[in-house]
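As the next step, I selected for study a record pairing a protein sequence with its backbone structure tokens, which the following lines show:
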Amino acid sequence: MAETAKKKKEKSLVIVESPAKSKTIKKILGDGYQIEASFGHIRNLPTKDPKTDNLGFDVDNNFEPKFEIIPGKKAVVKKLNDLAQKFDKIYIASDPDREGEAIAWHVRQVLKVPDEKIKRIEFNEITPKAVKYSVEHPRMINMDMVQAQQTRQILDKLVGYKLSPVLWKQMGNYNLSAGRVQSVALRMICEREDEIEAFVPQEYWSIHAELAKDGKVFEAEVAKYKDKPVEKNIKNEEEAQKIVDYLKNSDFLVSKVTNKSTKRKPTAPFITSTLQRAASSKLGFGVQKTMQVAQRLYEGIELESGAVGLITYMRTDSTRVSDDAMAMAKDFILNNFGEKYYPETPNIYVKGKQNVQDAHEAIRPSYPERTPESIKQYLDNDQYRLYKLIWDKFMSSQMANAEIANKSIEITAGDYTLRAGTSKVTFDGFLKLYNDAEEEKVEDSKIPDLEKGDRVDCNKITPKQHFTQPPPRYNEASLVKALEEYGIGRPSTYATIITVIQTRKYVEKRDKALHPTILGRAVSKQLVTQFSDIMDYKFTAGMEEKLDKIADKKAVWNKVLKDFYDPFMEEVNSVMKTAKKINIETGINCPNCGKPMVVRTSKFGTQFLGCSGYPDCKTVMSMNVLSEQNEENTETPPEEICEEKCEKCGSDMVFKTGPYGKYLECTNQNCKHRKPYHKSTGVKCPKCGKGVIVERKSKRGTVFYGCNQYPECDFVLWNEPTGEVCPKCGSLLVKKVLKNGDTIVCSKCAYKKEAEENAE
């Protein structure tokens, strides 16, 4: 009885990363538990340490790191320590990945309590079953995962702190930076731009015939000449016209009819990278926005019953689905769609050599029975759209195959063979909820019933001119796909990588495509020329594999660092000895003397264009000249449809330009509603939760940032928000322009983001 009474009185402290989880977990665990947040990392490598060459780790002592409490986190650490003394048990419940494991270890290091009081718990979803199971089955901190994370951190700092000074010396700009992964991603974008510029379009023609049988008209295209493919082999109009003239004097006979039924399988539920790509292509979300919205869905949304975590952990590259989730999906599919929509055996997905016993799962709804429509009233528009995407994708992954009827017709006209084909969905299966391809469904009735030997009439023959197209520029979604295919970085880092290269002004987004700037191309060229190993795709992917091996106990962390460090530093020291200042050419000539204009940097870090003939010619220009030149070189339609709908009639809005700048106008001729255009930051308003923060100008022309729901919401900032939140107080972080360069600070408290936090 005494032991039972003691157990009842025991209270436990649960330490999580984010305060947003607190309500959700508190609701599950009840009054016997107090939930507190570490607000992310509490310790980091020091900014400056003369004894360790300013890196924060001792190269001569097996790379032993020396961590210190992050400025601004001392109050958090003190609070956690004070609370730890009052509780019988302490559970560290940081996220279930390497970064979360490292945070757990750092928290353990600062808590001045006995080891037996502290346990590590993790859960892939914030549900009663998962959270309670983790508390009942705590474990020790996984030091292999911690060492893998620390190795990545040391590598990133080593590369950033040693390569960046090379750029400073050569380009005279102390705002430049290099990164182990970000610089390789920049290289990919720059090399794609090189391919586009070097591309020479090739002319080719296609021949299309309008055919008819019993009054039914259909189209066929010339596919073969004497059984040899003709695709892109008709080089000019003269060749095309010869074929047209030949076909006009030919009989058209059906030579082959093929009817084939195929089954299309559903694809796996989302992992981080596929979610980012789908959200980009289907919802127009940037990768950073996708992760921010997903984080909120994971941590908990206030429903009728309180805070509820709606999706599983969103940083994963596992496609595994738990047995419980598969069972819930099966029940839902059978009850709502019927037996024919559920496969004979459950769909199981394995990614590569992944172990299906992996503790992580794919990204899926925590409660499959909570349909998007049933909780729509509790979600803002972005949350609803992303949750629906995740729910539809998961539920479709557990459904039956779709069945497609394909018909292919070959028609002979002399030496030429024309081809026509259609497909029809005969059973939609998983397509009822989700379609990856989004292909147009062509109805079989477009082609009449034909049999081999049938003669068809030719109404018209049309030659069409084409030109081969250069490879497309990367957008955020295709860059994520390329990084994943090369094995560069990890899903949890993609959003940061893409954000950093844009923040550094190496890349700019225009019409959703990522364009390298002149500065970005110059930086990439210097790094690729001088540090071929670091900038090599295979080398970077190989380093990621070594980090995985450390986590799997297949490699020793400080040996991995040692093997990297010696040749790397030899290369850096060699380059620094011979590094000379270079000019970044712009392709613009000086209007006064005709010499090339180059990019220069003032002593305050501001970039401008200066004449290469300095000091004889002191002509300078604003960097805006380059932006204006880019705009002139970019073909845009006269009326570009924007993503907003008219608030009066719901029609599309288009961009227009008037004497006072850009504005939006409704396409409905009976409405013609107009409104000012404000550039969006993509950051959700923290005050009302509905609006987005946009760039505005005061009556005096001063730029500020405010909610687009004004006057209903009056939230404003004087600096551009980054989309991140302050780890100290939870307010938005903003970009602050200072004389010695830009920095990122909290919009409310004194928190300042350290330089190494920005480095990849």
